[in-house]
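queue> pop job 88
queue> type: inverse folding (structure -> sequence)
queue> payload:
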């Protein structure tokens, strides 16, 4: 079986594949001080809860945007799974051409999402990932990674607002009934949701203009469900896009390993 690990700034999303099928997945907080042994205990418990045997896992692939955690997860893989994990980065086969000025600057998660989206849906395509940062990535019809957009995610933006504005209360991020809020809570919710949605639709339209054609828009990430209800430009929600991308990249590199 194949264990895939997507290490993000806020969460690690982990999946278990067998014969190309996602059997189960889970999410744990990203803790930079966690040791290889602690990761092993957490992952082992999740695997056993899903009635799988750790001995059946013979391959691991990792995408990591938190550099200090990559060697820790590599140590865990070697120590407890007796395998050398595939780390997404320069030199591995992806199936797409990266046209960034400096390809090494592109986050592993962005490459993984682009590989999965192009493999599953073709091009041209725009991928939006709602995480700690919100990222937009564009892939051409030929399978070229063109680049994209990065800006703060809605949750981190709200944290900054609450930290700097002493009189504004923390609120639950839910869809407001109307744009014009009739209380401070409703006003904050409206600004967060409608403001964020407006940014999303605006950026998608501008990317499409630069591409010169109506690229399909795929969305993924932790908060994609409730945001996508209000956008006008998202075509498809694919919550497991990153996990699928890790599996696809593993398969492209399997023979060389």
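queue> result:
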């Amino acid at each position: 079986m194949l264990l895939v690990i997507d290490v993000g700034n806020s969460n690690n999303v982990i999946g278990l594949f067998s014969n190309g099928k996602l059997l189960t997945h889970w999410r744990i907080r990203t803790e930079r001080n966690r040791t290889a042994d602690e990761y092993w205990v957490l992952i082992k418990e999740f695997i056993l809860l899903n009635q799988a045997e750790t001995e059946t896992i013979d391959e691991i692939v990792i995408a990591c945007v938190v550099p200090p955690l990559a060697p820790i997860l590599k140590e865990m893989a070697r120590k407890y799974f007796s395998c050398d994990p595939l780390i997404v980065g320069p030199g591995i086969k992806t199936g797409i051409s990266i046209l960034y000025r400096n390809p090494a600057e592109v986050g592993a998660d962005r490459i993984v999402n682009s590989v999965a989206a192009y493999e599953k849906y073709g091009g041209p395509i725009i991928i939006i990932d709602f995480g700690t940062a919100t990222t937009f990535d564009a892939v051409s019809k030929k399978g070229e990674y063109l680049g994209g957009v990065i800006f703060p995610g809605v949750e981190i933006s709200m944290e900054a607002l609450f930290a700097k504005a002493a009189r504004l209360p923390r609120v639950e991020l839910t869809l407001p009934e109307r744009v014009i809020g009739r209380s401070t809570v409703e006003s904050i919710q409206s600004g967060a949701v409608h403001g964020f949605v407006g940014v999303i639709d605006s950026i998608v339209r501008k990317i499409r203009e630069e591409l010169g054609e109506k690229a399909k828009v795929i969305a993924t990430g932790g908060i994609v469900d409730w945001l996508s209800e209000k956008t006008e430009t998202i075509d498809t929600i694919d919550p497991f896009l990153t996990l699928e991308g890790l599996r696809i990249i593993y398969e492209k590199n399997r023979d060389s390993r």
